[in-house]
């Protein structure tokens, strides 16, 4: 199983869970949902979301998606990130994980994430 991780505000995760589908703003504006692999997600969170304590991680089973998932380096970073080109059906979400920060405020991957 290939696991993708998506950083999400906790309230959005609960709303998506209740509706059965997740359609973030990036799907309309960019055409895809930004994701990361386990070895990337903390670095991304510390760069983009430093200081935000209201985040969770969606753990997604790529094999349960009906749309394309493309590994791309859209920002010429030298690293490929997975992008989901379509809505995220909630049945592809394996778990919602806490996304803790350590004593200096950096995000750490929860031991509960399947990597």
Please outline what is shown here.
With about 120 residues, the chain is an alpha+beta fold. The chain has helices at about 10-20, 25-30, 40-50; strands at about 5-10, 20, 35, 55-60, 70, 80-85, 90, 95-100. It has one domain (about 5-100): ADP-ribosylation fold, CATH 3.20.170.20.
- Rounded Rg: 13 Å
Just name the CATH architecture. Alpha-Beta Barrel
Number of beta-strand segments? 8
The helix content, as a percent range, equals 10-25%
Query: How do the helices and strands follow one another from N- to C-terminus?
Result: EHEHEHEEEEE
Give the overall shape, derived from the CA principal axes. Answer: globular
Spatially, the strands of the biggest sheet line up as 1-4-8
Explained architecture:
By secondary structure, the chain is an alpha+beta fold. The protein has one domain: ADP-ribosylation fold (Alpha-Beta Barrel). 23% of the residues lie in helices and 31% in strands. It contains three helices and eight strands, in the order βαβαβαβββββ. The protein has helices spanning 10-19, 25-29, 38-48, and strands at residues 3-9, 21-22, 33-34, 55-61, 68-72, 81-85, 88-89, 93-98. It has a three-stranded antiparallel sheet with strand order 1-4-8. The longest helix is centred in the middle third of the chain and has 11 residues, at 38-48. The protein is globular and about 40 Å long. The termini are close together. 22% of the residues are buried. The model has no long low-confidence stretch (mean pLDDT 94).
């Amino acid at each position: 199983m290939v696991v993708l991780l998506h950083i999400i505000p906790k309230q959005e995760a609960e709303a998506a869970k209740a509706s059965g589908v997740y359609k973030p703003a990036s799907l309309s504006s960019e055409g895809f949902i930004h994701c990361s692999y386990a070895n990337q997600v903390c670095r991304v969170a510390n760069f983009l979301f430093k200081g935000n304590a209201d985040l969770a991680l969606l753990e997604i089973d790529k094999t349960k998606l009906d749309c394309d998932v493309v590994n791309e380096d859209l920002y010429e970073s030298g690293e490929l990130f997975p992008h989901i080109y379509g809505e995220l059906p909630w049945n592809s979400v394996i778990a919602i994980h806490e996304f803790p920060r350590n004593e200096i405020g950096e995000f750490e991957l929860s031991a509960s994430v399947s990597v």
